[in-house]
Amino acid sequence: MTRPLRLVAVSGGLQRPSKSAALAEHLLELIADAFPCEQRLVELGPLAPQFAGAVWRSQLPETVERELAAIERADVLVVATPVYRGSYTGLFKHFFDFIDQDALIDKPVLLAATGGSERHALVIDHQLRPLFSFFQARTLPLGVYATDNDFVDHRLRSQALIERARLAVQRALPLLELPRLASPLAAEEAALA
């Protein structure tokens, strides 16, 4: 039997409750319904005061280092960020500046964003996809964008959004299975079978 998928979601929302965190958690649940997973949600809001003034990773406290290491060890990432002035926030980018540039190579990444209106929907393809292309990550085919109208009390309520999230995960499933199958443990198990 293969090991559980190490699934990490990063929410760029700086407040709690957060629409970005709610969307990230929803996507985590959809993936966990398909695979046995070890789930972790990294919320930048509580971490921001601890890394905002740092220039080098060596300056970061252990709490931030643990979250960065979890992201680097993940099999699959879900990344959800609020849109701020047409892009992800500066703190979101600053956090990912601490990630080792080779740590995300070929890692499947499901991209998601939340914004006040539909006019920011291209943030996934014009901002997030290029960032994770730098890391040579494998961005998944469908991103999930949500507006304020898709939520009620910071919970997903729009059936169209819920369906879009389900479809994004469904289409990603074959790619999400690869990290579990490529693990050394899985290779040993295949050899013994």
Question: Mind explaining what this structure looks like?
Answer:
By secondary structure, this protein is α/β, with parallel strands linked by helices. It has a single domain, classed as Flavodoxin domain (Rossmann fold). Helix content is 46%, strand content 20%. The chain contains 7 helices and 8 strands, in the order βαβααβαβαββββαα. Strands 1, 2, 3, 4, 5 and 6 form a 6-stranded parallel beta sheet that branches. The protein has a two-stranded antiparallel sheet with strand order 7-8. Helix 4 links the parallel strand 3 and strand 4. It is globular and about 45 Å long.
Q: Report the CATH superfamily.
A: Flavodoxin domain
- SSE order in H/E notation? EHEHHEHEHEEEEHH
Main β-sheet, in a few words?
Answer: 6 strands, parallel
CATH-defined topology: Rossmann fold
What structural keywords apply?
two-stranded antiparallel sheet; alpha/beta; 6-stranded parallel sheet; 193 residues; Rossmann fold
